[in-house]
Protein 1
Amino acid sequence: MFARNGIDKTSIRAIAADADVDPALVHHYYGTKTELFAAAIHIPIDPMQIIGPLQQIPVEEIGHKLPRLLLPLWDSEMGKGFIATLRSILAGNDPSLVRSFLQEVIAKEVGSRVDNPPGSGPVRVQFVASQLVGVVMARYILELDPFKSLPVEQIAETIGPNLQRYLTGDLPGFP
Amino acid sequence: MFARNGIDKTSIRAIAADADVDPALVHHYYGTKTELFAAAIHIPIDPMQIIGPLQQIPVEEIGHKLPRLLLPLWDSEMGKGFIATLRSILAGNDPSLVRSFLQEVIAKEVGSRVDNPPGSGPVRVQFVASQLVGVVMARYILELDPFKSLPVEQIAETIGPNLQRYLTGDLPGFP
């Protein structure tokens, strides 16, 4: 249902109805909707564990902090599951779950904070996503040498200013 | 052989020997090694058609010019073959062809021109690759909205300064 209808338009109630169980049961075993989503795509962490702390970070620092939050996670044992999921989604030609997550959850939680000028928020976030997805590709899927073994801090320092520019710098195409 | 041994260590002579034909025959039908490589991974254009013109561009402009060269190509009919190939390589879990191409051909042709301080060239190029692969993912594989339909010029203006920074700006981790 997440893949077909998107995360926004999928309710725990609808999932429970489809599974013919009580919604309270789904809540009990899976928690919030993003936790259920994480379980559905086999990532071992609730995305809100990353997105939540991000909300405490001043907008002017998000671009610098983001790779320092994500890279250690991706590099960890836990990250292997995430990479495997990304790979299988790519192989299965069904990117709708990743798309839905980026467009709905991330755009809403982060995009709303950088929506200046109005309307630019989703575009800003998608440029950030393009760089981060590219880092995942280069480091874990293509395993470019030396990129795959660069220290987290070196990658963070290199891409951080660029991510920050996407989030709060001048954005071509917007006045 | 390209996948197993890399592009550098694969000669037309070795390919011809493996196919039990005269190397001249391979040259006659497939041209140069990069043209043969392009045919092997089913991309309809010799990578040198992009890399060649790039060599005429001053180093200080490569980051700005690169997306203006590549995006129209990827957006074209011809690009669909490229995207399909990328997808199948990812699905097949064998990224060695893409890796070899990025590490050997691109690093040699472009990396050597931005190798300042010495040793930084390959790293610079791989950061550029990470952003460009991420654009391919966001625009053609994940098909993020509105990213998938942003004008080429808007993407080029947005990522160009960042690519240029990777190529000729300060690079963390290098003195």
Note: DSSP finds ten helices and no strands in chain B.
Protein 2
Amino acid sequence: MQSQIAEIERTVSRVATALNTPGKLEQHIMPSWRGSMPAPEALRDIVDQFKIVLFPDFFDQLRGCRSMTEARLTVSIERLYRLLTAEMTKCMVASDESADDDTARTRASSCALSLIERFPEIKRMLYTDVQAIYDNDPATEDYSEIILSYPVVQAMIHYRLAHEMVKLGVPLLPRILTELAHSLTGIDINPGATIGEYFAIDHGTGVVIGETCIIGKHVTLYQGVTLGAKNFTLDREGRPVNIPRHPVLEDNVTVYANSTILGRVTIGHDTIIGGNVWLTESVPAYSRVTQHHYQNSNRITTHNPNS
Amino acid sequence: MQSQIAEIERTVSRVATALNTPGKLEQHIMPSWRGSMPAPEALRDIVDQFKIVLFPDFFDQLRGCRSMTEARLTVSIERLYRLLTAEMTKCMVASDESADDDTARTRASSCALSLIERFPEIKRMLYTDVQAIYDNDPATEDYSEIILSYPVVQAMIHYRLAHEMVKLGVPLLPRILTELAHSLTGIDINPGATIGEYFAIDHGTGVVIGETCIIGKHVTLYQGVTLGAKNFTLDREGRPVNIPRHPVLEDNVTVYANSTILGRVTIGHDTIIGGNVWLTESVPAYSRVTQHHYQNSNRITTHNPNS
Amino acid sequence: MQSQIAEIERTVSRVATALNTPGKLEQHIMPSWRGSMPAPEALRDIVDQFKIVLFPDFFDQLRGCRSMTEARLTVSIERLYRLLTAEMTKCMVASDESADDDTARTRASSCALSLIERFPEIKRMLYTDVQAIYDNDPATEDYSEIILSYPVVQAMIHYRLAHEMVKLGVPLLPRILTELAHSLTGIDINPGATIGEYFAIDHGTGVVIGETCIIGKHVTLYQGVTLGAKNFTLDREGRPVNIPRHPVLEDNVTVYANSTILGRVTIGHDTIIGGNVWLTESVPAYSRVTQHHYQNSNRITTHNPNS
Amino acid sequence: MQSQIAEIERTVSRVATALNTPGKLEQHIMPSWRGSMPAPEALRDIVDQFKIVLFPDFFDQLRGCRSMTEARLTVSIERLYRLLTAEMTKCMVASDESADDDTARTRASSCALSLIERFPEIKRMLYTDVQAIYDNDPATEDYSEIILSYPVVQAMIHYRLAHEMVKLGVPLLPRILTELAHSLTGIDINPGATIGEYFAIDHGTGVVIGETCIIGKHVTLYQGVTLGAKNFTLDREGRPVNIPRHPVLEDNVTVYANSTILGRVTIGHDTIIGGNVWLTESVPAYSRVTQHHYQNSNRITTHNPNS
Amino acid sequence: MQSQIAEIERTVSRVATALNTPGKLEQHIMPSWRGSMPAPEALRDIVDQFKIVLFPDFFDQLRGCRSMTEARLTVSIERLYRLLTAEMTKCMVASDESADDDTARTRASSCALSLIERFPEIKRMLYTDVQAIYDNDPATEDYSEIILSYPVVQAMIHYRLAHEMVKLGVPLLPRILTELAHSLTGIDINPGATIGEYFAIDHGTGVVIGETCIIGKHVTLYQGVTLGAKNFTLDREGRPVNIPRHPVLEDNVTVYANSTILGRVTIGHDTIIGGNVWLTESVPAYSRVTQHHYQNSNRITTHNPNS
Amino acid sequence: MQSQIAEIERTVSRVATALNTPGKLEQHIMPSWRGSMPAPEALRDIVDQFKIVLFPDFFDQLRGCRSMTEARLTVSIERLYRLLTAEMTKCMVASDESADDDTARTRASSCALSLIERFPEIKRMLYTDVQAIYDNDPATEDYSEIILSYPVVQAMIHYRLAHEMVKLGVPLLPRILTELAHSLTGIDINPGATIGEYFAIDHGTGVVIGETCIIGKHVTLYQGVTLGAKNFTLDREGRPVNIPRHPVLEDNVTVYANSTILGRVTIGHDTIIGGNVWLTESVPAYSRVTQHHYQNSNRITTHNPNS
């Protein structure tokens, strides 16, 4: 017993020292000491409050009399102001070595207010998304079912909030928010992407929407659709360059399940891309694209063992 | 400082008012004020108790002497009765504008009891699923590993419970339950689908099983399989009609990874669908379907830079 | 009211009895009574502490002065020793009917220490992964963003810890850990797989890496890639045999989105597999594999209704 | 091991049966089955919201801009309305065998509204108490210190809320609330007592104020003071009768530490009762009462062992 | 900033070293390393389960149909068996340097079972206490009010459980349990004291009942009553000797508020001790003891400033 | 239903407005808007960490190998530094209208470090208290029992920490900390009091120690002892003046239960004050003070109804 404890001590101590002796790579990856990272509970709180603000009739467990909705909205927005300022400050401090805390906080406060100014527009956009989802799905006749349970709603709430943050120059936080939605829904939308109103995704697992995508209005995607980059341009140090490299989808485009569209191509408006299509070139408006080889491409052999 | 506070006040107040002035779309989407929505913690509690009831030897942290199992089952079932009645009541009130609370509660209580009556059959079905999963997987020899960690088990527990609710006419709750599983497992089974015993899914991420699917016994799916609709019939108002539109899979069908079967087609019994197959037509029994173009379809170019 | 209570009582009681009368299948699946199962909170605690140990500058909310890092590491490692010993003991008791508790605990303690000994090497490997992810992604210039929000980091932390457990012969726990990551990220890596340093996955949803895969250094995968088994060899009892059946990827291999590689094939080093490739044969080094039929395979029809 | 488990089973089972076979006394004490009891968390929530409503600048962790205070008050009051209605309903059902649930809920809702109507007056009273405590204590110059940390404030908040409930005829809940304060502060005020404005208690541990006490304005008590009953009148069944049996303290009375006043006596206004007084008779206004025997009543013997 | 961090580091490090260098006294007080201490949450869980077992109709939030009470009791008792065994094991290990863990666990398990055997008798005793409290209090007509809110009930539940532990020789845990009640109620009953059935305390704050007290049936105490030791006999090392040193109260004794009875004296049955009595000698049966000097002992001076 | 909702709305709205219209007194009591108040959870965390730092072998649930104690101490102290700085900053901002946040934080950080410097001395003092308690109590032979369960230990931990804060000029926080202990133990020690080493209180409920008390070494108090002020000197505005007004107890003084010592009197060293003594004058060293009138002062009447 005694000797076992001694062994534990020795091991723990030796490993702690080893772990505290950073190798070459770790020295590179280690950030300078700056404040604390965004707190997971704070992020969850932000999203919860934001959902109450957007859909008070669906997410506010204490919702009730209409005439008190404005009071509840005020309280939630004020709370969001505080939460957003706090977490944005952390992100600004963490991503900008030269910033001092006060400057970061002032900038964060100003960003938080600007973001709040855009809430009504974000809300309007999200309601168009809900309507588009409703219009696409024969399996439901109930907005509550959509808003409470459809993964795409969760994903779009995170994305539309995060996208506004990107536009305001907030570092770190937007991606953390969309990856949170990615984890919950399997839908991976880069917060830098631009997505128009009345956007719908069905099922959604495996959808990938890249950073420089531009998506018009009334676009619908199905599960497993990738809007990705075809290849990277590398800079002199061999790092990929961040230039427009993802597709542009104009208005009224529909992309069916598991199709992949790669590179800075443009899918013209009112186009339908069938399932399992692999597309690396632009397509004019009013097109219908299907996988040529999927037409009667299955080899079917049948043998009835009983016959 | 003082002026900053004033600005925050003005912004919060203005935005709260704007958000409380619903636009045209929002008026449409807003439900009438009716009770509260299902509580996430209650749903988690329902699933946890249900897992204890089904697999007391695996999920009950305080499980122990066999002879007390019945007592523990009684307590968990009683608790489920209360939780189910409460959440079903909310869903019935929320989805039926004309219902008064007492009628909803009485109906919910009756549904909860009917659901509980079916627990032994649900349990039997789920044990066949576990057995089928075990029989398909060379990577494990341990039922505990399957029951505690395989996503398909989680998905099927949610689905089989939710499907019975659908049959009892419970609104909202079934979909919320299966979407919860979707979020946890990446497996998206519509609670309306009909699935026979000894059902197995391996890996599972990206699987989609549509609302009107009918799946026989001893069917196995792999990751990324879609059993979907090909296209929708629209009604006069332009909304898709909810008619049978997803595949029928007869007994002993296996569908390998990333294949897509669309429309009201029938896959005959004892059929194997290979990987990446795109299928929109029926297939007779005892068939073997593979992607014609996947046979030797890869263009492989090799160049050894050293040579 | 009174009669309703009586009905509830009768139903609950009858169902409890029925559920406590195991059918034939259930008797098979039911484990013998042995201790308790791994506790979800303990697992979360293990992963959280492990993340603090590996990335103290990113995950430790109370991180601060450099000179105290070693103290914090010591405390976290000691805590991990206790948590790991406790959960491993449960798993060893649960999976080995003949083991008595003390033997299991002694073995678990010894495994926990051996695992801790490997922390510095696990850490080194994970830092190479972070570097590889960074080098592949034009969308970020920030290690914090990667470590805090990229799903692949989460998946690799779970996998690399779980894989060392597999090597130490720990039952049950490794798979539970990787399935936890699977649920959070949609990336399904079997803990038995062997993966070299500088491993990167982008987006990740739907990636499946089978139990007997061997992956070299500097390998990159994209979303939806399957490294799976082609078919199983069955033993005399009809159960699939656990033999090498998944691909070998040599160094510097890249596999683009949604490609599927099946069976014990070898992908030679410095090879690029394009998107949507279906591959069941080996490929020599320095190859470039693309789907033949994806080259210009789309049928595009365009009609401008206005023209 | 096996035999030990059997013994546990036998014991648990035997004891459960014994405990479920109520003796004569237990049959008497056992209530009929009626709903559920007040939930401790709900009570804590009620008190917390009530404190925010009364002292928004002290207890609201998210308090901030003045102009939003009304919104926050509205939200808290609405929440209190719901919480109070729910808990009062339980108490009304539990204490009145004949009441059906709907009647109880209607009555509870009406009581909750009436109670809320009185919040401004309760608040006014409590602010006079705070002022009186401030005026009596040389150890503080800070209202925050008093409101956040003095036990008497906690006790008076509970009492003044509970007392209004008593006046509205709410069963059970008032006493539960004051006993909660008793547990936290050592101050035991029966919610039936009547207490005027500007009431102060210093230190407070051991203070007892009986159900039928009537206390005027500007009264101050010190620790250990009992305002109790001298003896009980018994009814025909030998149960004590609930008639006025506790003291009346007129305005401007001060009672110093550990004094005991028993029976329906009247302490005239502007009277000071010294410490350790035992009083069972009325006292006219402008009196000063001290323990006769405490004047020089100590026997002091001194011996210096060194001398 | 940098220098401040350095100062923090230096201070923390210096103080940690100083605190880790135990002085003479600390070496004396420091226990040898043995397992862990009782966990506060486990203790709270024990008391909560025990309350459900004793008063299922009052404390079980999910209580309901009578016919399921036995199932609920079984589950709670089994849970208590586990909790008690775990915490008692810790206490036995902590208090007996020579004990090995397995011996302690076996002893603890046996103690837990013996304790459970006594639950029906403990329950019977506690119901007599509730009845006695009810019979003494004109302020209530409701058993629910007493059981849910009266501090004496809380104190007696803890005491009667702890006292049985003392009789079984369980170290540490009994005192921890009664001090927990002391903290909640202000009633300090040493678990070693012997207390007969139908025991009541009113208000209770400040009541002290010493370790060797023997209290008969139908005894009632009021707030502030001390049943204490007069003085200690010291052993050769100057430590006080643990011999009978507290009062014996025979049946039907009542002691009014703030009276103090010290030493191994006997208060004969059917005796009433008035308030504020100081008693250090035995009293025969059927006595009535009052403070001589409290009769008309108040010096009352009155002056009407207006006259 | 609809009209009821309207009534709720009207009431809530009217009351919110009324509560938001501060009366004269409320305007006085309302603080200016400055930051947030100390968070209860932070305070609990501070005390918990402080207990781990002082008694690592008793309160650290993860305590273990001796050689890692210093690491654990380092982590806890660093955490305390952060918690203390945060809460002290709030208190400094809240109590000093003119202070800006940065000045407050700098001062708080400096106070926190100074406080940490004193931890070894606070620890030494507290170990003398534990020893004194041990030496006074025949009912225990176990330091664990004392440290884990005796209320006086809890009270002294809070007091000795708070007293050092008073000496450092920290506002608000010290009193909040000692009132927290007051609530838990019934022992009310003003943090301004000065208390020497080897201080013991037995039972403790109702003990009051005033702000300007000076207590020497080896002093022991029993339950219900008040060391209070006799009367107040008022300043010109009628507020009591904060001057020395509580007793001085020299070394080796013992005060038995329920005695009251008032005013700036000096109790000479090696003096014993008996129970229930009322003392408002100084007493020389080596004295023994008893209540004259308690000697044989009971009126005992006995009547045997059977004789």
Note: Chain E is about 45% helix and 15% strand.
Protein 3
Amino acid sequence: MLRKIAVSGCGNVGTALLELLCEKRAELKEKYGFEFEVTLISDLFKGTVADKNGLDLNAAINSLHTTNSLTGLNKDVRGEFGELLDSAEVNMLCEATPTNVETGEPALSHIKAALSKGIDVSTTVKGPLSLAYDELVALAKQNGAQLQFEGVVMSGTPFITMLNHGLAGCRILKIEGIINGTTNFILSKMYSGASYEEAFNTARELGYTETDPSGDIDAWDPAVKVVILTKMLYGKEISVSDVDRTGIANVTFEDMERAKEDGCTIKLIAGIENNHGDIKAYVAPKKIPMTHPLASINGAINAATVYTDNLGTTTIIGPGAGRRATGQAMLLDLLTMAGKK
Amino acid sequence: MLRKIAVSGCGNVGTALLELLCEKRAELKEKYGFEFEVTLISDLFKGTVADKNGLDLNAAINSLHTTNSLTGLNKDVRGEFGELLDSAEVNMLCEATPTNVETGEPALSHIKAALSKGIDVSTTVKGPLSLAYDELVALAKQNGAQLQFEGVVMSGTPFITMLNHGLAGCRILKIEGIINGTTNFILSKMYSGASYEEAFNTARELGYTETDPSGDIDAWDPAVKVVILTKMLYGKEISVSDVDRTGIANVTFEDMERAKEDGCTIKLIAGIENNHGDIKAYVAPKKIPMTHPLASINGAINAATVYTDNLGTTTIIGPGAGRRATGQAMLLDLLTMAGKK
């Protein structure tokens, strides 16, 4: 079965996905029987192009790299998103537009449009999932569509696949994770002796911080991820304001020194605890012993430890960001969805 | 669809699986739609019992715990294994008899009998896979059966599921793992200052070593696991004698002291490297820097780091042994196979 894919959003992640699809076309067919065309590429600023018989991926990638737009393809189309999905005969949408955690838009409308047409969706965008998880899951079910989102936590590190598939049969009792790379980079620098200001400035110089750093520093980013995981695991009604959230701005050099004297370090831990159905979600700087599986996770790396009834403790470590790593998350979603139909 | 399960081998793992199935019957139905009866339980020493309508699991577990036999059920049967599978109407076999890495028996014959009848097989037994991987995979394919073996490496820690599913779309370039708990326990003790003899004796006192400790110390156990992983990942013809294998018996207190002075530790690393199709498989004590993801894996814990083209480095850490953890591996296999049919 030939899949017709739409890529919505051509920032780093969408472009990396196009590159992976282009580079791996033969490998994906041979290894997974996955055959595809990309029939729609849409970006608010770079243009929208479509061809129901398949766009030239090399040309699209080249146009994005050289002109930062899609106009070089001469395949421009206009129209409402749902109509574009129809005319490009799309059956898999990869949604990678910028995250807006307050409205979820434009990704939320795109995902709804696709699911309501029975189109499978992979998304790396957190907003729609934290705001409308239940609605989207119901919409998918109602229309026989699938919704996958490996990339929303830990980029392509297959943490969500591990929770949903690798640990099937277990009860998830507790999760503790380092799921924000920027703050982990800063705390790692502080453990090595830097002050908060020095560490923050280094992170900024290396491009790890956003224009508005509060999403990381005040722990909004990991809190939104915790909301999505809590909904996914326990179906609980929860919003980001329900997460007990403390950022790292008040962690001092002295706090870290005292932790070190006690054989500990300080990490920004995102956690979910399920005490017989009583579910607690939090993000906070925590003093953890150096023997803790997360203590040695340094720099921009992410990691999560899962406590289960059958298996005790399992930890997964990997990249938490990066264009190709997040493109890989979408590629995995596509293969997962294709394998289930 | 009601699954009829056979459990072959009632040692620690088989019994733990029976306990998990008994304890989680309602949960498995509700969460995964997995409904089953265990219709055959077979053990060379403890007896063989069958009922095509389903055995009483509580009674079986109780009989095993109190009398170390299955005779308490009054459901004894006799016959050739294949005939027993037929008369008990089995469609999923869980094979957990003791490993014989030289002949693969009796597990090899059991697995062949099941696959040739189109019965899905989960096994935790390494021998048949290291000796007859290609034959078993072909037999499964030919008869529309599935063959899963999450438990052969890292017990229920879902490393094999991560390789096959979580990293789909990636090329696996290299694996480095600590996949033998006994030797890792000994080397961890030596890092803490013990001599080889002291560390070995502690491992023996804690019951971590086998009667014949050479399977661990001389690295036969991880070498067999490397063979299975190499076959699974690359389809390569390889036997345990092709693995470049060095055990830990010659690692001295002085070696470890020198490693520590260099900011390193010594770990027994099982590795597979794929250099553009040239595949190297080895197990050897290696000096690795303390910043390496495997350096902080201490005690009987297992871990593996996977290097891929799309994702860089991903590491998974978890139990490498244990009755319930290995029972969980078989439970995962059952759910995986049920989800694919």
Note: Chain B is about 40% helix and 25% strand.
Protein 4
Amino acid sequence: MADSRSHKGAQAVLMSTADEIETAFYEALQQADIEKMMALWADDEDVACVHPGGPRLIGHVAIRAAFEAVFANGGVHVTLVQVRRVEGSGCEVHHVLEKVQAVTGDGLRTAYVLASNVYQRTSQGWRMVLHHASPGQQDEMQDMIESSSVLH
Amino acid sequence: MADSRSHKGAQAVLMSTADEIETAFYEALQQADIEKMMALWADDEDVACVHPGGPRLIGHVAIRAAFEAVFANGGVHVTLVQVRRVEGSGCEVHHVLEKVQAVTGDGLRTAYVLASNVYQRTSQGWRMVLHHASPGQQDEMQDMIESSSVLH
């Protein structure tokens, strides 16, 4: 029983920040680990996921089906180039620039993706409630237009 | 002075829910009202906006410049077809289906847009922190894939 509680404690630590959920999300993508992926989402029927150029997927069943289709080809070679955060009380919005690489018939191809990841603190710890991704620009230096670059 | 307090009271009511901010956001779009639009955003340098197919705009200056460019052609004829909400403590994520109509050389054109709107409760009341929009499908009935439609 002590072991069981200790195990639950370890789980709680795993989910103790939005950043840890985000790290686990991209690990699940890289590892094509569907159970790890689905464990990250909040227990809410209206969690949503938009893959680049795709429809909006609402709820665990639709989100799982889409990731299973992606993972049928193996893990996604994705790395985070940049993360910016808007932190609220029990809620974080992360603006993420993803670098995705794939070997195609034309060799190694690189694409950038603009993702908005939203996390809420729930009774189960931090969980993802939204992943909304759009195709980015080709040049990773141009994907964000910041106030400073407009003013100065 | 009583009038001044009364006016402030009305402002506070205006910002008292995420839904009211959302209503004001789409009114500002329809009315091409840049001051009304910018008053809705949280006072945070990392608020972000992604227009369909566009880059990510970070901060008030970049967001304002993009809306001013849109509004130079007048208001946007946009209506909300559907809104679903994930409600957290001090944070709401709205999945919105927008119907946008415009008269072009080919007549009246209709497009659907998938938007994720995120609101946080701040010391100034509810404010928008993210508007992330993507091109939707042509048929408004197909823009969301719900769990029930996959299972049954």
Note: Confidence is low (pLDDT under 50) at residues 1-13, 147-152 of chain B.
